[in-house]
Write the structure tokens for this entry.
Amino acid sequence: MATPRKNLISLSNTPYYHCISRCVRRAYLCGKDPLTGRSYEHRRDWVETKLLQLGNIFCIDICAYAVMSNHTHLVLHVNLKKSKRLNNKAILIRWHKLFKSSFLCQRYLSGELLTQAELAALNARINIYRERLSSISWFMRVLNEGIARKANKEDGCKGRFWEGRFKSQALLDEAALAACLAYVDLNPIRAKAADLPEKSDYTSIKMRIQSSETGKQPKALMRFAGEQHKRTPKGLPFDLKTYLQLVDWTGRSIRNNKPGKILDEAAPIIERLNISASNWLSLTTSFTRSFKNAAGKEQAITAHAIHMQRKRRSSIANSQALFC
């Protein structure tokens, strides 16, 4: 029996989650169908465009993504502080970019005076929208439904486009977060869809590399902020240059199909997170097979299981072996 989504996502444990959606049909989501010879490559642009649009609407940051031929990988960060900081008008404007506005909301946005009863009803509705705009389930629902409807219309058919609901993994600590980011960014390399990260179309790593060439970070993605200090801008707790070096080194090792040796100029993040070279390669090539509902070191998984009131610690053996 599948675990309810509310038992998989707990923001008190971590705001970071790895989400995967797979296509259910024989024909690929994107790319060229080997049976019919028809190309669906343009659909990858659909997914990327919709994804980045939702990143600007929802109170959810996009940390990494990879649009593959028959599935998508996302690493998302729920920004609850942003959700609470937005005023009522901002919440309504964001929500109505996706869904139709009610007459009461239109009156409020136009500046009309409302009665106490109308204000109470409006505030209740706004609280629901505020919660949904920081919900991964709603984020994935809007993303996947839009793509499915568009693809069904193009194919002239009905029915499921995605393989049920999306799969999610909680990233409980920095080690799990770093490994999952690299796993997602290197998906095209592992699938032999690209030779280099900078040539991996429809991925976050390509967008980051292109922006880094101008000395900037892409606004559409959650920025790398380095070590977290009081004066440091909020963002991913790694240095961008170090992370790009790490991805490059990991990609070379995966492509050569052997663990190799960490070079002198390799990223010090491996040492800081206390993950060996061989374990790092295992994590970044089989992340979804190594962990089920939550990923992290033994202490983080134990705390997560206690908080979620679970009797069993998911993937604890792999955690002990890989994060030693």
Summary: Residues 291 and 315 are 5 Å apart (CA to CA). DSSP finds 15 helices and five strands in the chain.
